[in-house]
What we know:
single chain, mainly alpha, 8 helices, globular
Amino acid sequence: MFELAYGEIISGASRVIYGTAILFLLLFGVLIGIQITGISQQNFLVANQLNALGWWAPYLGVFIFAMGMYFFMSIKNKDIPWVILILYIAFFSQQAGNHFVGGVFGAFLGSLLMTISGKIIEKLDHKTPSIVSIMPAFWILVPGALGVMSLATLVSQNYLTALTEGITVFMTIVAISLGLLIGAVITEPLKG
């Protein structure tokens, strides 16, 4: 969706198809695991929203994710502080949007503010490319686990829940894309 928002139609569309294929492969893996372990379909999905570690765990998780992206993407040392900043901007704005309006607006707000912040940082003296700082934050916003959950509930023949979760995943992806588009339009004057 990131590439589609910036007008890269061919690569963006191919990545959407690739992401969808990966989602179905994950679902296939979940189903095979369920069949091998013999877990009943009623018990294999546990929706536990409790945070067993404490209130601080998500904030530390963002930092740990940043360090993982540092190694995974081979981010330069000079760029990692900016990547961490953009990750926290996306995370906090998503949390604020979730709290005050709802989950879909949280995804939109996180996407919008990470795009604007990434473009502003790109124009600073440090010259960290916005794609370097935005891409890890984009991964924080994408609802991959929710997509797997909706497909798994579909397979367990809980059709109403699967439809509801699938619509939520779709609307969240649309909200992230809209945030990227609006952020790109707002920061267009910075390109020059």
